[in-house]
Amino acid sequence: MFAIIRRVEVRVIILVLFLLICSPAFAAQERINLSVGQTVYVPVYSNVISGPKKVPADLANTLIIRNTDLHNQIRVTVADYYDTKGGLIKRYYNQPETIGPLGTSYIYLSNYEDEGGVGANFIIQWQAAKEVNVPIIECVMVGSQGRAFVSSSQVIKKDTE
Hints:
Elements: H1 2-22, H2 24-30, E1 34-43, E2 47-50, E3 55-66, E4 74-82, E5 88-91, E6 97-99, E7 104-109, E8 121-133, E9 136-143, E10 148-152, E11 154-158
Antiparallel strand pairs: 1-8, 1-11, 2-3, 3-7, 3-9, 4-5, 4-6, 4-8, 9-10
């Protein structure tokens, strides 16, 4: 009887280990994302609504683009800022901005900038001469009363060449 139970326990342990090794989450830790370019959407909150009176609280925003490649530069070709309704507010680069290996570029929006609203966003396009580690693109928002948070980017288009 104990031998049968022990065999079942061993089979269950082997099955659990197999599933852990083959799971996408485990595999994703080993995967390095490479690309020659992307178009990226980044949420920005010029203000947030809070309290029972729904009063907007203004936030300062810093869009940060971090080149995570150890050896290659990337070029940011577009950094466009849009409002809640999808209307273009401002184009930030007239010419490509080059970011060296492990370098960082940023765009600062003052807390007095209130055109964007709660649904503002950046569209960022970046390119590289060859496949590189994809950059980390985030927006850090800081307000009064201890409000601070980060929004992550989402790839909406990948360049293929």
